[in-house]
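quick q for whoever's on today - can somebody do inverse folding on this one?? i tried earlier but teh output was garbage lol. tokens:
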């Protein structure tokens, strides 16, 4: 028996000798595009596998032994291993796509794992150069699911089929927009997969400002629109002729026309959005910022933020039009993501369940869609009960981490990561993720509002309130936090006014605060009525008050202040430890 035959098998019939030979060859191959530290990463995890220590290959070990992290490394707050594993996986995938037929053994790094796999290529497809090595044909690895089973378990869906599309329909789709490549499922009437709409942006000056200033505002707007990642920006040329040619060859679904100028020391942007399929104007408006309200340097930024949010934000004009189209025929892909954000606004369990299903299907179809991972993470957090244990927040954290790794320049992944980490009680990590999300999209009121709420609930009153005020009362959850701030300052009249404006009978925090506020104002009859109403949906709200506030990670000082109001209302509160 030869030496090669005596070599122990790594997996699937590939011997250790064969695996080592392929690893050495790959790491020397100049066509394998990979950083030196990720080559060291691959070498380390392969050696651990060869040594029989595959069970010990963990993020902590890799971070310390390969990337030089200190012994106190926390994989939750520092996703370095996940990020580099994604890059290494991409390098291996790209290499295998180009060269796998030239070699008898291929190396992969399965998703959700740090243990490499060595598998045999199909002998019928291996080139003469590979056959010259003389490898046998044992069975290869069995097919591996794309999902880490601990992250998500998408429901199986029908195998996809491409429908035959006539040239005329193709032309209509291209002209109609956003290159909506619809993947038809199985039979007619089933869901399609939609892409983000493509938008063309034209900005002109009304003559009251310089061309240079107008050009700067246009460029800033392009950046601001792209930060929302809810649409794609169509390329534009440097002159009208180039722009016209570009639009003929790559038409967009929506045309945003903007006119920038100055009127009585007030900078303004007039805007109009046109659906190029129907030729309908779907929205018009004017945003203004005066010199008296904002320093000159901040005027354009303020205007850009308002316009970008109004048009490209989750509740903006363009996504509103896309959501309206979803009502007639729901789609997977971008349409599903937009519906998920609507469901998160209402928190209706049935809607959340439906979007959870469509997001899982979307990820199965498009496993690199970071926006779908982020939306699914937020959906699982919304579905997770607060009053009993659930594995949903942990699964949400893995999904959010995946979203951030897939798109490290996208605010959405870090926003979802902030929500998941805070839900699990990792407050410092959540705040760090939120700051990263806000740095990536400074124009998002949702990010600003949620980060402000987390900071406030953790006792960072001043910074939290500043962000909440900047986000605006129309941002979900801001009104409740500002009512808490008024209560904390003993401005009970202001707190009452804010709470009476909130239509959220099922919101635990707003209802518990209303009872405490009414009692602090001496309106005990109204406090009793509010408590009776809340008791219909939360029978033990008084007895579980402390645990409920802890589950929501409310600062002890704020909990104590609310408890004082509830006690004044005559409620019997269960003390800690009882």
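ok took a stab at it. sequence:
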């Amino acid at each position: 028996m030869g030496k090669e035959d005596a070599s122990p098998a790594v997996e699937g019939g590939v011997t250790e000798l064969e695996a080592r030979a392929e690893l050495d060859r790959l790491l020397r191959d100049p066509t394998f595009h990979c950083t030196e530290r990720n080559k060291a990463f691959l070498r380390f995890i392969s050696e651990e596998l060869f040594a029989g220590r595959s069970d010990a290959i963990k993020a902590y070990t890799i971070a310390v032994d390969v990337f030089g992290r200190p012994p106190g490394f926390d994989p939750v707050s520092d996703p370095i291993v996940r990020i580099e594993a994604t890059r290494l996986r991409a390098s291996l995938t790209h290499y295998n796509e180009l060269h796998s037929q030239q070699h008898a053994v291929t190396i992969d790094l399965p998703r959700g794992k740090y243990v490499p796999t060595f598998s045999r290529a199909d002998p019928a497809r291996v080139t003469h150069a590979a056959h010259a090595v003389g490898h046998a044909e044992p069975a290869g690895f069995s097919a591996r699911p794309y999902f880490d089973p601990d992250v998500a378990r998408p429901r199986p869906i029908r195998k996809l089929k491409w429908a035959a599309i006539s040239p005329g329909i193709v032309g209509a789709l291209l002209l109609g927009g956003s290159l909506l490549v619809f993947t038809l499922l199985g039979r007619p009437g089933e869901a399609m997969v939609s892409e983000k709409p493509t938008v063309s942006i034209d900005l002109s000056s009304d003559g009251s400002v310089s061309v240079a200033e107008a050009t700067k505002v246009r460029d800033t707007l392009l950046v601001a629109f792209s930060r929302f990642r809810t649409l794609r920006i169509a390329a534009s040329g440097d002159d009208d002729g180039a722009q016209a040619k570009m639009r003929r060859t790559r038409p967009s679904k929506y045309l945003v026309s903007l006119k920038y100028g100055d009127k009585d020391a007030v900078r303004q942007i007039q805007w109009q959005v046109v659906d190029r399929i129907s030729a309908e104007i779907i929205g018009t408006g004017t945003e203004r910022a005066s010199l008296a309200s904002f320093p000159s340097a901040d005027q354009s930024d303020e205007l850009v933020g308002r316009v970008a949010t109004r048009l490209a934000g989750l509740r903006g004009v363009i996504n509103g039009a896309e959501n309206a189209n979803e009502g007639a025929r729901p789609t997977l892909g971008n349409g599903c993501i937009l519906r998920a954000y609507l469901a998160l606004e209402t928190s209706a369990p049935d809607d959340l369940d439906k979007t959870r299903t469509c997001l899982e299907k979307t990820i199965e179809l498009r496993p690199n869609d970071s926006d779908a991972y982020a939306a699914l993470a937020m959906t699982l957090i919304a579905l997770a009960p607060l009053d009993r244990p659930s594995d949903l927040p942990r699964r949400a954290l893995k999904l959010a981490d995946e979203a951030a790794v897939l798109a490290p320049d996208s605010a959405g992944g870090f926003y979802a990561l902030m929500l998941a980490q805070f839900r699990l009680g990792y407050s410092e990590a959540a705040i760090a993720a939120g700051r990263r999300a806000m740095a990536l999209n400074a124009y998002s009121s949702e990010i600003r509002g949620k980060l402000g709420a987390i900071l406030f609930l953790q006792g960072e009153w001043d910074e939290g309130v500043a962000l909440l005020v900047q986000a605006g009362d129309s941002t979900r959850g801001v009104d409740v936090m500002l009512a808490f701030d008024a209560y904390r300052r003993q401005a009970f009249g202001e707190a009452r006014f804010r709470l009476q404006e909130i239509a959220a009978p099922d919101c635990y925090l707003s209802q518990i605060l209303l009872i405490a506020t009414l009692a602090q104002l001496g309106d005990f009859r109204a406090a009793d009525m509010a408590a009776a109403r809340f008791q219909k949906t939360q029978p033990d709200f008084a007895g579980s008050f402390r645990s409920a506030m802890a589950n929501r990670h409310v600062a002890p000082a704020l909990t104590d202040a609310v408890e004082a109001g509830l006690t004044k209302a005559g409620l019997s509160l269960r003390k800690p430890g009882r």
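fwiw Confidence is low (pLDDT under 50) at residues 1-7, 125-189, 237-247, 293-297. also Residues 23 and 29 are 10 Å apart (CA to CA). so keep that in mind when u check it
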